[in-house]
Amino acid sequence: MKSRRRDRTPYILACVAFGLATLAWRRGGPSLAGEGLRLGFETLLQVTPLLLAAFLIAGLIQTLVTREFVDRWIGSGAGWRGILLACLAGGLIPGGPYVYYPIAGGLLQAGASLGVLVAFVTAKNLWSVSRLPMEFALLGPQLTIMRFLLTLPLPPLLGFLAEVLAGKFIDRIREAAG
């Protein structure tokens, strides 16, 4: 079942791209469709180094992180320590989803608990230190500080809840992911 879903994804995305290219062709002819394809290719060239680095990091995490490290620091036996460590890592790691999802996938395959993974991804989205200067500049210090303080308890809380409510499914999740 898992491989069937994975096999269909590129075909679905190719159909969406073909549909959008057709729409662009109908609206503006070959020049509009060509412009869209050119912009897409430029984006691909810009993110390729980032993707390559992120996937290399994810693979290296899987090979370098020992079972003892996982069990002690980020496995289901790590408890709050693992969840808080994941929150800290999520808040500090730079980059967008191209960076942190491959790393989360590497941690998943290395044996991290569900709570750790949920805390890591949630902290990355809510606590991202690299985003704070832009947020301060565009939204002002009051709103930024208020937003940050209100979201502060969420990553550890969600990590804890994920572990308590669904942690027993981590092996099934790991198997389905690949």
Description:
The protein is an all-alpha fold and 178 residues long. The chain has two domains: 1-47; 65-177, no CATH class. It has helices spanning 2-64, 67-74, 79-92, 97-110, 114-127, 132-139, 141-151, 154-166, 170-177. The longest helix is centred in the N-terminal third of the chain and has 63 residues, at 2-64. It is globular. The chain starts with a helix and ends with a helix.
Notable traits:
178 residues, mainly alpha, globular
Topology:
Blueprint: H1 2-64, H2 67-74, H3 79-92, H4 97-110, H5 114-127, H6 132-139, H7 141-151, H8 154-166, H9 170-177
Helix pairs in contact: 1-4, 3-5, 3-8, 4-5, 5-8, 6-7
Mean pLDDT: 91
Secondary structure tally, helices:
9
**What is the H/E order?**
HHHHHHHHH
What is the total tally of β strands?
A: 0
Oligomer state of the chains in this structure: single chain
How many strands, which pairing sense, and closed or not: the largest β-sheet? none
Indicate the percent of residues in helices: over 70%
N→C terminal distance: 12 Å
Q: Structural class, judged by helices and strands?
A: mainly alpha
- Gyration radius, in Å: 20 Å
